[in-house]
Design brief:
CATH class of the largest domain: Alpha Beta
Shape: globular
Radius of gyration: 26 Å
CATH topology of the largest domain: nicotinate phosphoribosyltransferase
CATH superfamily of the largest domain: nicotinate phosphoribosyltransferase
Helix content: 25-40%
Strand order of the largest sheet: 13-12-1-5-3-19-20
Number of helices: 16
Number of domains: 2
Structural class: alpha/beta
Strand content: 15-25%
Distance between the termini: 59 Å
Largest sheet: 7 strands, antiparallel
Amino acid sequence: MVQFRADMRYSPLLTDLYQLTMLAGYLEEGMETKPAVFDLYFRTNPFEGGYAVFAGLEPALDFLEQICFSEDELEYVSGLGLFKPRCIEYLRGFRFRGTVTAPPEGTVVFANEPLLTVEGTLAEAQLVETALLNIINFQTLVATKAARICHAADGAEVFEFGLRRAQGPDGGLSASRAAFVGGCKGTSNALAGKLFGLPVRGTQAHSWIQAFPDELASFRSYAATFPESTILLVDTYDTLRSGVPNAIIVARELYEQGRTLLGIRIDSGDLAYLSHEARQMLDKAGLKDVKIVVSNDMDEFVIESVRREGGQVDIYGVGTSLVTCAGAGGGALGGVYKLVEIDGEPRLKVTGDLAKSTLPGKKSVLRFAGPEGGLIQDVVCLEGETIACGATVYDPTNPMQHTTIPSGAEIRKLRDMVMVNGYRLSTKESLAVMAARCRKEISCLPNGCTRLINPHRYKVSLSEKLAGLRGSLIDRVKNYGA
């Protein structure tokens, strides 16, 4: 049975077979030690939205620091009958000794800009591709979904309640972690609470209510068991004619004991109407501090609708849509991992669609902000290149479109080196620090970027030198067949 820990080792077999076959081929060709550079990025913002929230870096660095093959794993690889003894011996001594450049977790990021850049030997940088994509793609997707949901909640708290619908135990843990980075205040997942130090929350299920002779008896029993943290589920029978009135009775009984009812939870029905009416009933009873929690297939669009229609909600419990990243443009981030330089020479992947052509060479990503911190645009440039205000920069999908960096803009580096020679350069950040960064960065987005429908397109541009390098390599590739 798998035992989950915060420092759990990822097996090096968490990979696609072709990573191993390519490595074996590099060994046969004597190419395994060639220096190589790979970029990890995505081509389209998830959920048809205006941004993404970068997450999963720390687990990715854990993987890179710990990766090695056990004898049992080597025996399995050898038993596949595909690999020569030399390859097995290479894997026996394998460690990642490369360099990684990345933004910190919680950073707002956009399509067509490098997130991770991995530098190392061709063999080691290639072998880690699948695991890095698995970790970064999913956690970035969940963090983005959480940020969208929390933004729609407009100040109300959001808790992640999705473990029972998550894609397996590890998917549930990763989702709880990433949801906190994206803005959720806690989780129902007790194991995630233990491993990651997250606040855990929970009330009772309808089966608790049904197990008692009547609803009021179940409320009284729960309040007696948890007198300091009572939240009552009020929709088992009739929310407004039974559940809320019985909750008010228990609230008054608690008050007589010097205690307070924390809240009620509504898990079905017209949540906007029911929460509004429940608020009126609680306030009339003098229970203005009792919070209203709603759940039941919530997502950012439902939450926005509840608010727009006058719902009175203090806390949203969001499960399935968050941990499964449901919705248009969801399901998977679609991140890719592409070779951009080998042996000091820039490399380019060309397709019929310019938007899918890679950006060659080692690169930096610069972020330009206004005097009050509002984000203006990002520019991808060649490593060491200087970009000043007034410079002309180019649309990566259409070279004919260009713009100018406005005067007075503040220039920031989006990414820093986070690993050298296979070791971290700094201690791990807390999830709370990542979540605070996410909140701040989303508040700095241009107007319209956080719209759920038809959001503003944030500009990610190419420097003149990078655009020129890509253009020249495309022309060179086209001439191969001439």
